[in-house]
Structures are given as structure tokens and as C-alpha cells.
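Entry 12.
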Amino acid sequence: HVQLVESGGGLVQAGGSLRLSCAASGSISSINAMGWYRQAPGMQRELVARISRSGSTMYADSVKGRFTISRDNAKNTVYLQMNSLKPEDTAVHYCFALGYRNYWGQGTQVTVSS
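Predicted 3D structure (C-alpha cells):
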């Protein structure tokens, strides 16, 4: 089993930055990839970014050039650096891990004011 604990959400003005963190514990060796989804009110959950065990990354088109996902293997932690934030980035952001099954964090709110 894998536990995920997120931190770093909050309220920021448009153009600002936030960094989300997701610390994993438990069956770490089973994890193949980690990343972030987000869900805005009334919308479907969408993939924001993911990073594989090897370090390869992928991003949603809407965040390319603004967001950067990275990982610190020594700390079993994944980060999402979010720059040039826009009001449309407002959503609950969920960390996930792909292992024997999909694991989810509790979610952290990101609110971008215009």
C-alpha cells in the first residue's frame, strides 16, 4: 500500500507561483510513476503532469511552459512548480501514484484570483 500526503496549495494572484509537494510512503518500490491531476467545480478530473520512475515527464497542453514536475527520490517526494498561474488553473489538485493500483492523495486547493 502507498500513502500520499500533499501540501503547498493556496490562494495566489494571476501571474503568481505556487509549489505543490507530494510525499509518498509505504510500498515505494512498487511505484512506476507519480503526478498530479486537477478537478475544477463541475468539470472532469484532468491530468496535469506526470513523471516516471526514469524521470521522463509529460504535461497537459494547458500547462506546458508554465508548470514543471520533478522528483526527489531520496525524499520520495514529487513537486509541481506552477508559474504564471491563471484563474483557469483554479482547482483541487490531487497527487497520484501508479503502482499495483492507482493511489490518490487527499487533494489540495489551488485558487488563482484575477
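Annotation: The chain has no helices and eleven strands. The longest strand covers residues 18-26.
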